[in-house]
Amino acid sequence: MIGRIINGLRRITGRDAADDGDQEGFVELIKWAEENNIGEDRIPRDAEELAGLTRLDLSFRRLQSLPDGIGELSQLTELDLRGNELAQLPESIGNLTLLKRIDLKWNKLEALPNSLKNLTRLSKLEFGYNKLTRLPETLAGFTQITELDIGDNRLVRVPHYLGNFTNLTRLNLARNQLEDLPEFLGKLTRLTHLNLASNQLKHVPDFIGSLANLTELELYGNQLGSLPDSLSNLHQLHRLDIGGNLLTNIPESIGALKNLDVLDAHNNRLTGLPESIGNLQHLSRLSLAHNKLTRLPEQTSSLLRLSTLDLSHNNLMSLPDFICNFSRLNNLHLAHNELTMLPTHIGYLSELEILDVGSNDLGSLPDSVANLGKLTTLNLSGNQIPFLPKFIANLTHLCVLDVRNTRMKVPLALANRIESNAVMAGYFK
């Protein structure tokens, strides 16, 4: 096999392998590939194919090291090293000067080689899920980068030179140890996606409002007690995740985000919603689970495009009738509240597929539930309903019926029609 490679290289270069370091590098690479059971579909054994390789996928191979010979693949434009056990990279990786993308996610990298500075054509750089505590100064010249993923590391600060990466459209800093955000991030005005989830941020600086091209902003899992009014400048925002923080309110200024499609504010300390929420008429998904809400403001009635509404784990004692006007709703989550009844006309929600009212104080279901012809999942667990209404049998698409911790019995005929493994803890007569 190795002899075949050497002879092939002689034909290509017209030189003796013994005198050519490049050829030695290829031989080393082939030996390494053989030792690590990497097939010819990844690393060709044909010399001409190897020399002309432009894409190399070595993902999820449990590799612990790379040979220096990898630096001889001078035509590579994409290198995928995801899901290995690499603790370091060889300096020779800096020879791959045509690289446009390198993916190093899910490894064990604690540092990066200085030679990376040579990869000046990189447009996409992914270091997520490693053990980096800092980014080296050698990356300072990567001002042409458009996508940078350094999430899931151990960074305690953002390097100063990142403010010069003005071509960035995507930046992932999630799941690090950042306590604050430097002002220079406000220069990254081309950003469309910014992920700051699961850090230790206590506030969001006002400069966030200068990132006017943002379409997605992830702030989940920090220690935010408030949001800046400058968020109102993000008119292009489609997705805002502020879940898992310490928010007691959402500012009225959020009403300016009229293109918002997804708003996730679950797991906070919200006791109410701003009246301006009614301006968010493009919302399709709204999650307010795990808060302290006791009511929905009347302005919420304007959210007629909602397809998913999650109000579980709050303090709601009743639901407004206008919720029955959400004709596009297919997921309604109301579990773990204090509801004693559902709106009479809930059957108007003809697109509803999932209705979760578990762990409330319901004593009955309105007859209109029989009109929910698309319902596939119905959770009635942990309520006070004494018997299963007969109209449940008319819900012909129902495949999950949860009656745990109730006195209800599921008729055998109904149980046989519903997928047997989907009737959760039902009692059969």
Summarize this structure briefly:
By secondary structure, the chain is mostly loops. 9% of the residues lie in helices and 12% in strands. The protein has four helices and 17 strands.
Task: Walk me through what this model shows.
- 9% of the residues lie in helices and 12% in strands.
- It has 429 residues and is largely without helices or strands.
- Among the domains are: 1-41, no CATH class; 316-429, Ribonuclease Inhibitor (Leucine-rich repeat, LRR (right-handed beta-alpha superhelix)), CATH 3.80.10.10.
- It has a 17-stranded parallel β-sheet, with no helix packed on it.
- Strand 16, helix 4 (412-417) and strand 17 form a beta-alpha-beta unit.
- Helix 1 packs antiparallel against helix 2 (21-35).
- The longest helix is centred in the N-terminal third of the chain and has 15 residues, at 21-35.
- The protein starts with a helix and ends in a 5-residue tail after the last strand.
- 39% of the residues are buried.
- Residues 12-19 have low confidence and may be disordered.
